[in-house]
């Protein structure tokens, strides 16, 4: 028995080291490339360390504050992604409760119908979606990025299922004591679903941060854009002109905040998930 | 829950405090000029605003401008006062009634006339005798050469007449060191569009798209011959980067790439015409950035005057724009001695050179270009039979035209006022 | 015992339904309506009934017909190749991470999650440099002479590699959460029965994480059907349009340089949505059924 665990432990390590190396090397390569000159990239090709470390790529990116105010973009993104994430957490926990713990006619049919509709590719819906944002007066405001995503079904699906794993007896005994639905939700269920909310929050934050198709349409003001859409302005050009170092540099700048969040959130969702066993069939 | 609410409220407060107001009394000016191009245009706009005009210009850069134009035109809200569009959009925009003629602009500033601009750029904005745009620049195909490699293979004399021919390039067959190539396949469809002109062909016949033509076939076969002789960078390889790494004699990309190539320190390069069959017949497929006004009833006369003033300022001062690598359209600028410092001045150095710049103004040109972008790489690199390819391309364009023209009929049924009403209602 | 009031469900699911109607349902209905029209995005759509569907489904002479079937075929290839990998690889990683004696799990997890944060244009450039014939490592290391993005099956392989590389982080986290939630008692009783690690995985872990599997499979499939950035950036649909997925054709029709052909594009999008819906329903049905028996 002891031997078996040892062998499987080494196998697990071997597998993890190989996989994370394969996953990390291209990222490292990207980071290192952001410190190389165009001359070096085209002449030396793929190599892990630059011949000469340079910071000019970053200087160029940061200097151009009129057409590319990166710091402003980062701040816009932080605002948008944070607001979006907080609202998502509120909406999915309330809605998830409705679809898992309340009994009403046609509940599951309604849920799966909405889920099905949300699967339709939204590419040609761009015009009507824009019109709605326009009618609401949200063009060039952060609400255009914060609110529409709240309608998504994916996270609700996850939360609903997680809540189903929490024994119904908890609700029933509380109800015997005269608790209302709101009380059951806020006092009993909400604390228990924290782990799944943190996971959904992370997904929402990352998704909102990385969305670039929609913000390009709803923002005209370069100072109000989120960073991913803003960088697209740059990357269009860096890509077309193959300014490889600057393209990498801008991509690296854009991932730093999400990366920090991930480090921070990771501690929470690993420890929190240990508290209970919510996800079940 | 309470903590959540607090965080949200604080964020909203901080954010709203950070946002400034928006002045309505400005000319909203949209361009698709991302990156450095945008920065040069920003500088121009800033210089103009520094002259303290009555109405200032606000430059807004959009990475997906045409999609966004559709969205604002459709909703009738937030239509820009002035924008820069590409030459190949003009015919279909005019046909859909999306552009306002620049007649009044020209009256407000008499110097904004045909004589003061490169002819090809000016006429790209003319449809059925009405002028719809004022040009900013011409940009298009250009061929960069690697001076060091020309010397290495002892073929500098190819450039003597400023035109490299197919035969000249073919003469290097079998003589290249491994890893070296004579030319790359960047912007291949533009190169072919130039060859079609060199052969006296066209992409339309009596208004009908003509892709499956002898001129097209001959052009593709000729370029394929270069590929088959092992002179062209292989299919799927990044020929642009291979030129920068010094392995390719000629790169057929765009006038704007000179800034990119200049970033590579030891690349000793220059610019010339796209290769041709004969030294005395050569063309460079071009496009142009054009100032245009999207249809919008709400544009006031004061604003039109302001637009005219701005365009006149650009006409006089757009030497800044040469920094972006583009061929400036204003005659004043290209005749100035400063302009000679820019590599692209090559293309306006003589009347013959100026005549080589060719802009396709055929209404369905964008579909033709799209078909070529989808197919020609496969045809030239021998991945697909040329006859089959040409038939499919012809079909592709015809089918797209058929779908598109149904829409046109629909639009033409409405007269102008009705259309405008409809646009503003929706 | 107090049952919840008549309007209580409305309070819990109502707000989201309003959001759903405004931001998903109305645009989707408009999109479906557009599929029965000719529309250039600017003017008003002109009703043409089933014409667009007849063109893409039945008129074998039409370019749109061949685009639709070629795009659908390539989309299905992409789904078939990528979805199993996007399930199996993160599942294996999660199992390894949840091994009770493995340390540094946060480090491993972070390294594997980061690629999902890199913007697609930068990621595509990184990988095209890696696959580049002259400059790259792949050909130097393995001595192959392929131009990867221009030859099949390598073109698909590059697309799948970048997709899996950038896309498994989320699934990995869901599986970890799922495996972590499996009761320790189940493993202990399996051990008492003499089960080895592999049998424990098949008999205990997999049945216990049924929902995470269903969820990730349905969501990953939906994502794979909507793919366009990876093939666009890596191969531009080539060689010979063998990696042009349907979403690329749809976007070209609606937002390319020429006048927009949004009606046909909408019809293709609706068909894509229907196929996706049927496949998701089948997945859900089969997996739900298998696990209960």
Superfamily (CATH H level) name of the largest domain in chain B: Periplasmic binding protein-like II
Write the CATH architecture name of the largest domain in chain A.
Answer: Orthogonal Bundle
Number of domains of chain B: 2
Average pLDDT value of chain B? 87
CA-CA gap between termini of chain A: 30 Å
Q: If you average the pLDDT of chain A, what whole number results?
A: 83
Proportion of residues in extended strands of chain A: under 5%
Helix content of chain B: 40-55%
Could you give a short account of the major beta sheet of chain B? 11 strands, mixed
Shape of chain B: globular
N- to C-terminal distance of chain B: 40 Å
Q: How many beta-strand runs of chain A? A: 0
Helix content of chain A: over 70%
- Number of distinct helices of chain A: 14
Low-confidence segments of chain A: 274-281
CATH architecture of the largest domain in chain B: 3-Layer(aba) Sandwich
- Number of helices, where a helix is a run of at least 4 consecutive DSSP H or I residues of chain B: 19
Low-confidence stretches of chain B: 18-23, 406-426
How are helices and strands ordered from N to C of chain A? HHHHHHHHHHHHHH
- Characterize the biggest β-sheet of chain A: none
Into which percentage range does the β-strand content of chain B fall? 15-25%
Keywords (chain A): Cell membrane, Membrane, Transmembrane, Transmembrane helix, Transport
Main location (chain A): membrane
Transmembrane segments (chain A): 12-32, 73-97, 109-130, 142-163, 184-205, 243-265
Family (chain A): Belongs to the binding-protein-dependent transport system permease family.
Strand and helix map with partners:
The complex is a heterotrimer of chains A (281), B (426) and C (293).
Chain A: H1 2-33, H2 38-44, H3 56-63, H4 70-101, H5 107-118, H6 126-135, H7 143-146, H8 154-164, H9 169-176, H10 181-192, H11 194-210, H12 213-218, H13 227-240, H14 244-273
Chain B: H1 2-18, E1 26-31, H2 36-50, E2 56-61, H3 65-75, E3 82-86, H4 90-95, E4 99-100, H5 103-108, H6 119-123, E5 126-127, E6 130-131, E7 133-146, H7 147-152, H8 166-170, E8 181-183, H9 188-198, E9 204-205, E10 208-209, H10 214-228, H11 239-244, E11 248-254, H12 258-262, E12 269-272, E13 284-294, H13 301-317, H14 319-322, E14 327-328, H15 331-334, H16 351-356, E15 357-359, H17 365-380, H18 386-413, H19 416-425
Parallel strand pairs in B: 1-2, 1-3, 8-11, 13-15
Antiparallel strand pairs in B: 3-13, 4-13, 5-6, 7-11, 7-12, 7-13, 7-14, 9-10
Helix pairs in contact in B: 9-10, 17-18
Chain C: H1 8-34, E1 37-38, E2 46-47, H2 51-58, H3 63-97, H4 105-113, H5 120-131, H6 137-142, H7 154-167, H8 169-181, H9 184-192, H10 197-208, H11 210-225, H12 229-234, H13 246-255, H14 262-292
Antiparallel strand pairs in C: 1-2
Helix pairs in contact in C: 1-14, 2-3, 2-14, 3-7, 3-8, 3-11, 3-13, 8-11, 11-14, 13-14
């Amino acid at each position: 028995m002891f031997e078996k665990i040892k062998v499987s432990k080494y196998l697990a390590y071997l597998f993890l080291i190989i996989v994370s190396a394969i996953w990390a090397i291209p990222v490292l390569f990207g980071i290192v490339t952001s410190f190389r000159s165009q001359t070096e990239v085209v002449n030396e090709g793929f190599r892990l360390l630059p011949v000469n470390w340079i910071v000019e790529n970053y200087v160029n990116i940061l200097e151009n504050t009129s057409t590319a105010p990166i710091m402003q973009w980062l701040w816009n993104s932080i605002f948008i992604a944070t607001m979006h994430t907080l609202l998502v957490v509120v909406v999915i926990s309330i809605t998830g409760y409705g679809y898992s713990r309340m009994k009403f006619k046609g509940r599951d049919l309604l849920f799966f119908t909405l889920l099905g509709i949300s699967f339709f590719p939204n590419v040609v819906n761009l015009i009507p979606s824009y019109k709605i944002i326009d009618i609401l007066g949200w063009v060039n405001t952060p609400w255009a990025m914060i609110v529409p995503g709240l309608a998504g079904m994916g996270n609700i699906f996850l939360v609903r299922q997680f809540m189903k794993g929490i024994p119904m007896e908890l609700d029933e005994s509380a109800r015997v004591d005269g608790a209302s639905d709101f009380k059951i939700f806020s006092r009993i269920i909400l604390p228990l679903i924290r782990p799944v909310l943190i996971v959904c929050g992370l997904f929402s934050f990352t998704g909102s941060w990385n969305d670039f198709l929609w913000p390009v349409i709803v923002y005209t003001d370069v100072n109000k854009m989120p960073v991913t859409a803003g960088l697209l302005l740059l990357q269009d050009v860096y890509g077309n002109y193959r300014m490889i170092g600057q393209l990498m540099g801008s991509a690296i700048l854009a991932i730093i905040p999400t990366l920090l969040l991930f480090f921070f959130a990771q501690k929470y969702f690993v420890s929190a998930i240990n508290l209970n066993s919510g996800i079940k069939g | 829950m309470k903590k959540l609410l607090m965080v949200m409220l604080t964020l909203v407060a901080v954010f709203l405090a950070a946002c400034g107001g928006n002045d309505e009394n400005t000319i909203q000016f949209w361009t698709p000029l991302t990156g450095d191009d945008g920065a040069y245009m920003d500088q121009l706009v800033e210089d103009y605003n520094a002259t303290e005009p009555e109405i200032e210009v606000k430059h807004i850069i959009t990475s997906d401008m045409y999609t966004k134009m559709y969205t604002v035109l459709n909703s009738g809200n937030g239509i820009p006062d002035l924008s820069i569009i590409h030459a190949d959009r003009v015919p279909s925009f005019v046909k859909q009634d999306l552009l306002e003629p620049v007649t009044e602009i020209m009256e407000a500033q008499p110097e904004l006339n045909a004589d003061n601009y490169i002819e090809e750029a000016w006429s790209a904005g003319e449809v059925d005798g009405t002028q719809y745009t004022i040009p900013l620049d011409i940009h298009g195909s250009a061929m960069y050469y690697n001076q060091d490699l020309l010397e290495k293979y002892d073929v500098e004399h190819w450039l003597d007449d400023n035109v490299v021919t197919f035969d000249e390039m073919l003469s290097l067959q079998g003589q290249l060191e491994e890893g070296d190539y004579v030319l790359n396949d960047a912007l291949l469809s533009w190169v072919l569009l130039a060859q079609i002109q060199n052969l006296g062909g066209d992409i339309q016949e009596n208004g009908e798209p003509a892709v499956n033509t002898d001129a097209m076939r001959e052009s593709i076969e000729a370029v394929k011959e270069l590929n088959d002789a092992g002179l062209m960078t292989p299919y799927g390889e990044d020929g642009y980067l291979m030129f920068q790494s010094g392995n390719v004699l000629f790169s057929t990309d765009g006038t704007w790439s000179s800034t990119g190539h200049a970033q590579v320190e030891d690349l000793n390069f220059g610019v010339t015409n796209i290769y041709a069959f004969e030294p005395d017949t050569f063309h460079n497929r071009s496009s142009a950035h054009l100032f245009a006004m999207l249809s919008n009833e709400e544009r006031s006369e004061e604003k039109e005057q302001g637009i005219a003033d701005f365009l006149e300022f650009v006409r006089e001062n757009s030497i800044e724009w040469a920094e972006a690598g583009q061929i400036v359209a204003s005659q004043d600028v290209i005749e100035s001695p400063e302009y000679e410092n820019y590599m692209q001045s090559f293309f306006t150095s003589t009347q013959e050179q100026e005549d080589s710049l060719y802009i396709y103004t055929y209404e369905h040109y964008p579909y033709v270009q799209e078909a070529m972008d989808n197919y020609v790489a496969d045809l030239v690199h021998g991945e697909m039979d040329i006859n089959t390819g040409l038939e499919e391309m012809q079909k592709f364009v015809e089918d797209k035209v058929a779908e598109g023209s149904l829409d046109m009929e629909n639009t033409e049924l409405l007269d102008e006022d009705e259309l405008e009403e409809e646009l503003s209602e929706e | 015992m107090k049952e919840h009031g008549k309007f209580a469900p409305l309070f819990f699911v109502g707000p989201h339904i309003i959001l759903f109607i405004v931001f998903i349902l109305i645009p989707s209905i408009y999109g479906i309506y557009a599929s029965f029209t000719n529309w250039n995005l600017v003017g008003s759509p002109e009703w043409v009934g089933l014409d667009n569907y007849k063109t893409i489904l039945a008129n074998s002479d039409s370019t749109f017909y061949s685009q639709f079937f070629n795009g659908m075929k390539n989309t299905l290839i992409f789904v078939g190749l990528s979805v199993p990998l996007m399930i199996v690889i993160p599942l294996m990683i999660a199992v390894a991470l949840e091994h009770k004696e493995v340390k540094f799990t946060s480090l491993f997890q972070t390294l594997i999650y980061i690629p999902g944060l890199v913007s697609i244009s930068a990621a595509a450039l990184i990988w095209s440099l890696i696959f580049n014939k002259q400059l790259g490592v792949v050909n130097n290391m393995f001595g192959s002479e392929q131009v990867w993005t221009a030859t099949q099956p390598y073109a698909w392989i590059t697309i799948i590699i970048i997709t899996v590389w950038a896309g498994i982080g989320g699934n990995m986290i869901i599986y970890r959460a799922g495996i972590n939630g499996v009761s320790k008692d189940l493993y202990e009783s399996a051990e008492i029965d003499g089960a080895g690690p592999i049998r424990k995985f098949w008999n205990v872990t997999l049945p216990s994480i049924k929902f995470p599997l269903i969820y990730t499979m349905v969501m990953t499939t939906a994502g794979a059907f909507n793919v366009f950035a990876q093939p666009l950036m890596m191969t531009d649909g080539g060689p010979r349009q063998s990696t042009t997925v349907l979403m690329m054709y749809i976007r070209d029709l609606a937002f390319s340089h020429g006048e927009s052909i949004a009606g046909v594009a909408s019809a293709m999008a609706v068909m894509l949505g229907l196929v996706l819906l049927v496949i998701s329903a089948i997945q859900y049905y089969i997996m739900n059924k298998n696990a209960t028996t």
